[in-house]
Amino acid sequence: MMTSLQSSIEYVTKRVQTLEARAASDRHEIDRLQSVIVNITAGRKEVAFSARLSVTKEHMTDGTTVVFDQMISNYGDAYNPRTGIFTCTRTGLYLFSVSLEGHYTDGQGDIPAAITMDGTHLGYLVSDPIKSGQDVQGAVTMVTQVREGQRVWVEVYYRNDVSVFRTFSTFTGVLLS
Asked: What is the tally of helices (H) and strands (E) in the chain?
């Protein structure tokens, strides 16, 4: 009976040692895979922003950048709320969206504006109220390829002495891939 008990103890001991060795090997593989995940995600940088106007911008002229100065979010710190310019920190496919609120006063109210990249207008919008006291929102959303270092902003075009109202005026950009 002692031999049978001793054989059982030896078998269980060897089995425990085998399982401990396998567990150590699995732990090593888990650590290796976690390291791979960390290295992959460290190279991935989120880029996204949303900003709005904190005050109405008055007397804007053709070529003036609309500076959306109140940050809602700024992942990757690529948008500058002092200049109104997004500077691409990672090449990829981006979605940009702009909405501007115009208000009809003194016989005018339309606000033509464009999403602009490095001086080239990419997407256009117009907020065009047609009667006194009317507020109208214009918007454009677009997807485009942007390379690292390129700059994107919103600018007034074609008109002078326009006012962009703060309530519903926003600029958003996000890296899609």
From this structure: 1, 11
